[in-house]
Write a structure and sequence with these properties.
The chain contains 6 helices and 10 strands; from the N terminus they run βββαββααβααβαβββ. By secondary structure, it is an alpha/beta fold. It has one domain: P-loop containing nucleotide triphosphate hydrolases (Rossmann fold). The strands form 2 sheets. It has an 8-stranded mixed sheet with strand order 5-4-6-7-3-8-9-10, with helices on both faces. A hairpin with a 2-residue loop joins strand 9 and strand 10.
Length: about 240
């Protein structure tokens, strides 16, 4: 039986970082730990304001501490404390776009060069590479920040995904509806988390139980058509 309140410490015995599995909570019925499979290039975290979307990103930052991160923050700046952290390329405004782009380009090119040297299947190569996460807190804000380098990013983002850099994007249910190429790239997802009422969004194919009422620490885990409820720990502010 799960405790009424689940904490990050409760995940400590369930971590599978070496397998590129990100623990995000527990199935309330079975108590099984549930994971985001970072082998899937894009994870979407969907929910209304203040339901814990950024909390999911903080869970990943804590779990994969020491790995390479690319952080595109929201206008609120909830991830600003990670600016300047070793291994983190942070963008909180348009002024940080050039450095963010160059850091992502450098890592992508490094992986591409290594792949040319070792050969084989690119899927196997990507799976063998260390975890690198591109965290986007507010997908629409990221697209707005990137306008000056849209042409450069349109080919770079899919290449980065192909080479094993995992993208995790938060969004409101009513957002990410643009028809631009960057939005299309970021919405190519088969996995993620829905927070709040799943019926308010149509990004991930999650159907809530009949009469479901949103609970603050309960979300819906989704992976390639399958979904389960998940009890999520909240990170301390």
């Amino acid at each position: 039986m799960l405790a009424d309140v689940v904490t990050y410490a409760d995940l400590s015995d369930c971590l599978k970082t070496d397998e590129k599995q990100a623990a995000i909570g527990f199935d309330p019925e079975t108590t099984d730990p549930l994971y985001l499979d970072l082998g899937i290039p894009v994870q979407m975290v969907v929910g209304a304001p203040t339901v814990g979307k950024t909390n999911i990103l903080k869970l990943l930052l804590a779990q994969f501490e020491g790995c390479k991160f690319f952080i595109a923050d929201s206008r609120v700046g909830d991830l600003q404390d990670f600016d300047g952290t070793p291994g983190v390329a942070y963008m909180g405004s348009e002024s940080g776009l050039d450095a963010f782009y160059e850091a992502l380009l450098e890592e992508t090119e490094r992986r591409a060069k290594l792949f040319e040297e070792v050969g084989g299947r690119i899927r196997d190569f990507s799976a063998s590479q260390p975890v690198a996460l591109l965290l986007i807190d507010d997908g629409d804000n990221f697209i707005e920040l990137c306008k000056a380098k849209t042409k450069e990013l349109e080919p770079l983002l899919p290449r980065a995904m192909e080479l094993g850099i995992s993208f995790v994007i938060t969004t409101l249910p009513s957002k990410m509806r643009g028809y631009d190429n960057l939005t299309k790239i970021l919405k190519e997802t088969q996995s993620g988390i829905v927070l709040g009422n799943p019926g308010e969004q149509n990004i991930l194919a999650v159907s809530p139980p009949r009469g479901y009422k949103a609970v603050p620490d309960i979300g819906f885990w989704f992976r390639r058509g399958a979904s389960r409820q998940v009890k999520i720990p909240f990170m301390r502010q």
